[in-house]
């Protein structure tokens, strides 16, 4: 499912325009990105936890040329699903069999 399909699904369930849902999604992504870029975590109960993760500088290799290079340190994001999301996923998996 891509962003547009997700927005259409949410809009259908909430009886609101797709453009409204897309605007909400864009704003949420922006807020989560801004928060994590400040090295703060975002916790959404029953959904998950977005937390910043500092990757250290390391040696890498260009797969095309085989040349070594240094990959600079950067901040990435880890997502840990919440208990509610895991419960819903595992319930669905068990009932599909």
Can you describe what's shown?
- The model has no long low-confidence stretch (mean pLDDT 92).
- The protein has 3 helices and 5 strands.
- The two termini are 22 Å apart.
- β1 (42-44) and β2 (48-55) form a beta hairpin.
- The strands form 2 sheets. Strands 1-2-5 form a 3-stranded antiparallel sheet.
- Helix content is 47%, strand content 28%.
- The protein has 97 residues and is an alpha+beta fold.
- The chain is elongated, with a radius of gyration of 19 Å.
- It has helices at residues 3-14, 18-37, 83-96, and strands spanning 42-44, 48-55, 58-61, 68-71, 74-81.
- α1 packs across α2.
Structure annotation, total helices? 3
Taking the sheet with the most strands, its summary is: 3 strands, antiparallel
Following the backbone from N to C, one meets helices and strands in this order, namely HHEEEEEH
Portion of residues within helices: 40-55%
- Which whole number gives the mean pLDDT? 92
**Could you name the ranges where pLDDT drops below 50 across 5 or more consecutive residues?**
none
Strand order of the largest sheet: 1-2-5
């Amino acid at each position: 499912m891509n962003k547009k399909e997700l927005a259409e699904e949410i809009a259908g369930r909430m009886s609101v325009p797709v453009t409204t849902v897309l605007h909400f999604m864009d704003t949420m992504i922006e807020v989560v990105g801004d928060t994590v870029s400040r090295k703060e975590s975002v916790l959404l109960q029953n959904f998950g936890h977005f937390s910043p993760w500092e990757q250290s500088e390391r040696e890498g290799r260009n797969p095309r040329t085989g040349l070594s290079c240094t990959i600079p340190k950067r901040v990435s994001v880890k997502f840990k699903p919440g208990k509610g999301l895991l419960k819903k996923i595992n319930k669905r998996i068990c009932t599909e069999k």
